[in-house]
Specification:
This protein is mainly α. It has one domain (14-151): Four Helix Bundle (Hemerythrin (Met), subunit A) (Up-down Bundle). It is 56% helix and 5% strand. It has helices at 14-34, 37-42, 51-69, 87-105, 127-151, and strands at residues 116-119, 123-126. Strands 1-2 form a two-stranded antiparallel sheet. A hairpin with a 3-residue loop joins β1 (116-119) and β2 (123-126). α1 runs antiparallel to α4, α1 (14-34) packs parallel to α5 and α3 runs parallel beside α4. 23% of the residues are buried.
Length: 162
Amino acid sequence: MELTEIQTATVITHAELLHHWLGHRALTRRVIAAFPEKELLEFSIGGMRTFAGMVIELLAIGAPGLKQMAGGETEPLNENVLEANSKANILQLWDEATELIKVYWDQIPEDRFHDKILAFGQYEGTIWFSIFYFIDNEIHHRAQGTVYLRSIGITPPYFYER
């Protein structure tokens, strides 16, 4: 018997993946909000960046990366664009980026998720792989922020409350 049709399995839909990521973004926002401003901007452990510095990296990746995937021009990764000089400013930038993620997400057709891209002009992979990296990277840095919060005596938001 000759196979004439390729079947694909869907484990999670386009909309469900966005919902999953937005749940992580909401949790990361609560971690940012849990920090006192001084510690958000200045506290670090073992030579690591401040949590504000980590959040700037996340802001430089998420919405700009999706913009490229949605058909925008490829721009190099740039963490020096954002002024993150206060907790209020960082939260505002986070909220603006989350809204942009929603806009760009809707511009990426589901059938393009296997397209190869060169994210930020240097990281080769598929669209789905890059999105998974964006989410994984956010989880990684949020965990560092959680350690920072615990070390300054603040109970962080529960990781499972997304």
